[in-house]
Amino acid sequence: MNNRWKNALLVIPIYGAAAFIMGYIIEGKPVWNLVISSVIAGFLLVVFILPRMEKKRLEKEKKTKASLEENGND
């Protein structure tokens, strides 16, 4: 199984549980719309957004490292 999906399976219940507890504390009963939306948000964050941000960060670091090596050789 892909590492992204493993991370998603770990994060989704945490987001859902946090939303359930917060809804219960604030409203006095579980707010299921909040729980479901938090689970969806956690899934999208871990599977799509964070890997894209990591990829862009690595590309930027590689580009910076290459430019530093070029300037160091002069």
Detailed description of the structure:
By secondary structure, this protein is an all-alpha fold. It has one domain (3-73). It is 91% helix and 0% strand. The radius of gyration is 19 Å and the shape is elongated. The termini are far apart. The model has no long low-confidence stretch (mean pLDDT 90). Keywords: Membrane, Transmembrane, Transmembrane helix.
Short description:
This protein is mainly alpha-helical.
Low-confidence stretches: none
Count of β-strands: 0
Question: What is the count of structural domains?
Answer: 1
Count, helices: 2
User: What order do the helices and strands follow?
Assistant: HH
Radius of gyration of CA atoms, rounded to a whole number? 19 Å
Helix coverage percent: over 70%
Strand content: under 5%
**Largest sheet entry:** none
Shape designation: elongated
Through-space gap between termini: 46 Å
Helix- and strand-based class?
Answer: mainly alpha
What do the pLDDT scores average to?
Answer: 90
Keywords: Membrane, Transmembrane, Transmembrane helix
Transmembrane segments: 7-26, 32-50
